[in-house]
Amino acid sequence: MRILLTLLLTMTSLSAVAQDRLTIVELNAENLFDTRHDTLKNDHEFLPDSPRHWTRTKYWEKLNRIGQTIIACGEDSSGWHLPDIVGLCEVENDSVLFDLTRRSLLRKARYEYVMTASGDVRGIDVALLYSPFSFRLIKADTIHVVPLADMRPTRDILHVEGEIGSGDTLHVFLLHAPSRMGGELYSRPFRKHVMSRLCDVVDSLRSQHADPKLLVMGDFNDYADSPSLQLAYGHGLINVSSEAQGRNGAKGTYCYHGEWGSLDQMLVSENLRSWVAGCRIHDAPFLLEEDTKYGGVKPRRNYNGMRYNNGFSDHLPLVLHLQH
């Protein structure tokens, strides 16, 4: 841990120099819950007296695992550089973000954060960490998604506007679309509904600002060729993560029954296409484990079924480099 903290300090100083380059990370943190019960939410699965025995020790291990993942995403061809912006899905509440940014392995990164507080039944939301040295927050707001009939309340979309080192304004959208529970066909309209809401906001921004620079990222619970993504493409958003690959065997951000696929996506507006210096899946060996049933490797998740695995997440992070 001491080595990682030293590396973190080094990366922080480097990030102050490399203002013309932005490193952006997206990660589904897989059930980043605290150990306290929220009486308004169904968080019983992650409590000390639950079958998972979600204790304070496991909670702090999880926080440091997520911190370790974020730090490792700073690696690129030029060396190490603290990620400037980190989009996290499946985060329970503000106290978890406080612990992550102020009391975990990330405490010396000096990240600030904003997050949603939506009506998701389990109480999970999305959150954005950002370095105030490379992304100056202008404003943040949430885009509420009114559920369709037969659709459970879902996560709000987070919209954050900030100034980057070049002086340009970057609009960042972070979403966690409804799952495929009930089957892909049954749940497809729910994800298209979320995307339609996002596209309405994108169109509104374009009517208010001359050629705004847009970045949309998150867990879409859909693949690059899915109908919800096709809707986004029709509104001038370009998927820069569709061909992303790992370096250590990952062929997607998620692996189910030995089959890799990417449910996580990063989209940019046309005026950012020339800024894209690369997009990859960060599959560092410590984030992987052997898939003894199907062969190859898979993400080292926190639980395998009900068995505690002391892992990281069932998703791997996406890392986008923008050069401006």
Task: Detail the topology: elements first, then pairings.
Elements: H1 2-17, E1 21-32, H2 56-72, E2 75-76, E3 79-80, E4 85-91, H3 94-102, E5 112-115, E6 125-130, E7 135-143, E8 157-164, E9 169-176, H4 184-208, E10 213-219, H5 227-233, E11 237-239, E12 254-256, E13 259-261, E14 264-269, E15 276-281, E16 288-290, E17 297-299, E18 303-304, E19 307-308, E20 318-323
Parallel strand pairs: 1-4, 9-10
Antiparallel strand pairs: 1-20, 2-3, 4-6, 5-6, 7-8, 8-9, 10-14, 11-14, 12-13, 15-20, 16-17, 18-19
DSSP summary, beta strand count: 20
Query: In DSSP terms, counting alpha (H) and pi (I) runs of 4 or more, how many helices?
Result: 5
Taken in chain order, the helices and strands follow as: HEHEEEHEEEEEHEHEEEEEEEEEE
Q: Choose one word for the global shape.
A: globular
- From the N-terminal CA to the C-terminal CA, the straight-line distance is 33 Å
**Order of the strands making up the biggest sheet:** 5-6-4-1-20-15
User: What would you report as the Rg, rounded to the nearest angstrom?
Assistant: 19 Å
Question: Structural class given helices, strands, pairing?
Answer: alpha+beta
Q: What percent strand? A: 25-35%
Percent of residues in helices comes to: 10-25%
Task: Look at the structure and give the mean pLDDT.
Answer: 93
**Low-confidence stretches at least 5 residues in length (pLDDT < 50)?**
9-18
The profile of the biggest β sheet is: 6 strands, mixed
Briefly say what this structure is.
The chain is of the alpha+beta class and 324 residues long. The protein is 23% helix and 31% strand. The strands form six sheets. The protein has a six-stranded mixed beta sheet with strand order 5-6-4-1-20-15, with helices on one face. A six-stranded mixed beta sheet has the order 7-8-9-10-14-11. It has a two-stranded antiparallel sheet with strand order 2-3.
